[in-house]
Amino acid sequence: MPINAQLLDNPRSDRVRRIADLSRTKARRKNGRFLIEGPQAVREAVRYSSDVITDIYVAGDEDGIDSDVLADIAQRALDKSADLYIHTATREVIDHISPDAQGVVAVGDIDKLRAGMKAEVEKASSYSRGMRVAAFWQVRDPGNAGTVIRAADAAGCDVVVFVDDCVDMLNPKVIRSTTGSLFHIPVIAMGTNDFFDWMKEQGLDVWAADVYGTRKRKPESLPDVLDHMRGEDHRKDGYAVLFGNEARGLNGKTLEQCQRIVSIPMYGKAESLNLGTSAAIILMSLAFTR
Amino acid sequence: MPINAQLLDNPRSDRVRRIADLSRTKARRKNGRFLIEGPQAVREAVRYSSDVITDIYVAGDEDGIDSDVLADIAQRALDKSADLYIHTATREVIDHISPDAQGVVAVGDIDKLRAGMKAEVEKASSYSRGMRVAAFWQVRDPGNAGTVIRAADAAGCDVVVFVDDCVDMLNPKVIRSTTGSLFHIPVIAMGTNDFFDWMKEQGLDVWAADVYGTRKRKPESLPDVLDHMRGEDHRKDGYAVLFGNEARGLNGKTLEQCQRIVSIPMYGKAESLNLGTSAAIILMSLAFTR
């Protein structure tokens, strides 16, 4: 039960600088470590992926940890894993590591996280029912990326795929925006061709979520698709929905590779909904048909 | 066709200060005017509520308006209404009025907006089908308030009600977050008792959107409610869904006044969804059943 007895109190120490540095992609790649900020994300990481965590830094002083909430997180982590270290640090040190820490940050092992996610995906692809895939092409905004991972989790998807050039899912702002869902559902990244090849292998049609469609193919309306999916014959069908970039949607070439195009009808005068909301509506209403 | 020929170029003038001041509730109340910021919101205001607009301030110089997009908005406004004034102002002046203007701001008349909204609500309450009401209790965050108005618009609701102590719907950040929907759907504010009285008058049950319910009443699951609403006998039924505060939900007293409690089931490991996403899922999936 390794608790580091020594209080970390120097915000300018090399150690603190190295941890804070993990907010940058380059440092994550170099060190194979990533940051988990804030009580909610750290608590969910402890609950579902404690083996991934190497260290937890929690606010306190010589007398112990600052608050019951933080002490509880530390205790649960120790109960779960013999391999992680708890360090007490001053608020100043914690805030130096991350201004969004709210008193606690954890450091995770990227290879272990990815290995766990890979195993989850393999498990899902062996289910007797079809796999439920939420895919996002070129999602760039960290807040959006986190929101869509959370929506896919809530909708009971088996896997989230970040297709082509997306934001790094280990960006701390992405993790924060998932409110813990990054530790609930596997998220994997791959190129566009690899994605379509994999879906073909899995026997899944890819549905583009797209308002306009192409000149040749008008989108099907989501409620019609749902009516179809509610039919007894389709209850066990899997699905793979591909959402486009938050500003530009999907490009023509990617749309053409999709087997179907689905759009959310607008009933009032609004022109559209944003990516996070659209993804939540489509994925949750699909979940309602299962 | 009143275009003000004189370029506004003094960001420290009284006029500019007075307009910028409309970002504050007090100044709006005192002057009976409100601010509409940015091309998207101003364009939708011009399209659907041009009679509300008194002035439009658009970025330009001695040679005219800055860009085709802005010139197009100004032209449409002039085509629509003989009563509004277009002013060209330097970018510096526009940015002084609002850092979120992106080259254009409009000033609207609060009484005219409210009168138009009141007429819309009266029209809706005379429909032969039931009224579709999206109500929000104590919504405090301007971004959330805007997002839920946009969702209610997309879902074809007839009216949005801000119940009890909500953020001012004329807060510029609310209007921006609606991406124009404030000019598509009437939004009215009232106290909790007035809301329940009005719904009773309309013959509408109020459904609380709530994850937990009370000790005596467990929430019904949204998909079950939708199955019921899809039945032929209920296609013309109206609905009134009441959503709680973004952090605290609905309080017990308000929950007790609702006839039904509805919750969105969670299929994965996520604990909940945020207010904006929950509202979009419930309102849109209800729209799919109509």
TrEMBL record, chains A, B:
SUPFAM superfamilies: alpha/beta knot, L30e-like
Span of domain RNA 2-O ribose methyltransferase substrate binding: 35-114
Keywords: Methyltransferase, Transferase
GO biological process, one term: methylation
GO cellular-component term (any): cytoplasm
Record-level Gene Ontology MF annotations: RNA binding; RNA methyltransferase activity
A Pfam family that the UniProt record links to this protein: MRM3-like_sub_bind
Protein family (similarity comment): Belongs to the class IV-like SAM-binding methyltransferase superfamily. RNA methyltransferase TrmH family.
Protein name: rRNA methyltransferase
